[in-house]
Amino acid sequence: MMASALNQNMLDFVDGIARSESPEAAGRHYITFVQASGAVIAHAFMGLDSSSFRATTLPDWMVESESTEAAVWDSHVPAAIRAGVPMFFWGAEIDKYNPQAKPTGKQIGQERLRLFKQRNAVSFGLKNLDGSTAGAGLGFEDGERLFRLRMAEIGGLLSVATFSAHCRMQQLLPLTKAPSPLSKRQAEILQLLGAGYQLSGVADKLGIADSTVNLHLSQLKKKLGVRTKEQALATALMQGWIAV
Q1: Is 72 helix (H, G, I), strand (E, B) or coil?
Q2: pTM value?
Q3: Do the beta carbons of residue 182 and residue 216 sit within 8 Å?
Q4: Measuring CA to CA, how many Å separate 182 from each of 18, 123, 173, 219, 237?
Q5: In whole angstroms, what is the distance from residue 15 CA to residue 10 CA?
Q6: 73: which residues sit within 8 A by CB, 6+ positions away?
Q7: C-alpha distances out from residue 187 to 20, 90, 180, 198, 235, Å
Q8: Of 46, 79, 76, nearest to 171 (Cα)?
Q9: What angle (nearest 5°) sits at the alpha carbon of residue 75, between those of residues 73 and 78?
Q10: Contact between residue 137 and residue 43 where contact means Cβ atoms under 8 Å apart
Q11: Which residues, at least 6 apart from 59, have a Cβ–Cβ distance to it below 8 Å?
Q12: pLDDT tens digits, the chain, 244 residues: what are they?
């Protein structure tokens, strides 16, 4: 699915996630969306231990193995998840040239390739409202060149979808809904971004300088404890702090 088609479906996806009445339903909705983007593996988890809620296409035995094997925890992929890296690439092909990839991490990639045809993957480091670690990973059959092209085109949309699903699953587990920490101007900026405006368009619409928009974004990302504007937008949408 091309970026234009995914973009057209994004608001429907967010609306569907918001209407989900159970974490399982939200998880199924997320998996359907990312599979339409070409993912052959979808794995979203609300905690690092195997007992935490997760929405996944992986078999239970693999989830258990990857969650409990000590050597796996020392590899570069869970390290990036624990560090909250917003989006990073890994997999059987990419890790051939990654000096930070440890043998166990490379072994995971090779196992995913052998069993599920996952050549390369994108993962997202997430944080729950209580500060605990969560995450998501999407695997693709693409060779490295095609995979990087795909991510350049739709990586941002997949990031919004992932963080939207994560927020909704938190709400349904349930966790307490936090009051909005956004200022009026910060909420306006996120609403315009959610409506499809680029940063320059947001500045024009609000009658402020581009640098002022960037300053507000920097402040609100710090306030929300996120690293990208996509994460900030997804958090605000799913917490009900803004509507688009």
Answers
A1: helix
A2: 0.71
A3: no
A4: 20, 27, 24, 10, 12
A5: 8
A6: none
A7: 24, 34, 9, 15, 12
A8: 46
A9: 60
A10: yes
A11: none
A12: 456 666 667 888 988 998 999 999 999 999 999 999 999 999 999 987 777 899 999 998 888 777 665 556 668 888 898 888 999 999 999 999 898 888 888 888 999 999 999 999 999 999 887 778 899 999 999 999 999 999 999 999 999 999 999 999 988 886 545 678 889 999 999 999 988 899 999 999 999 999 999 999 999 998 888 888 888 888 888 777 887 6
CB 216 within 8 A of CB 208: no
Distance, CA of 162 to CA of 87 (rounded, Å): 11
Q: Which of 123, 151, 155, 137 is nearest to 55 (CA)?
A: 137
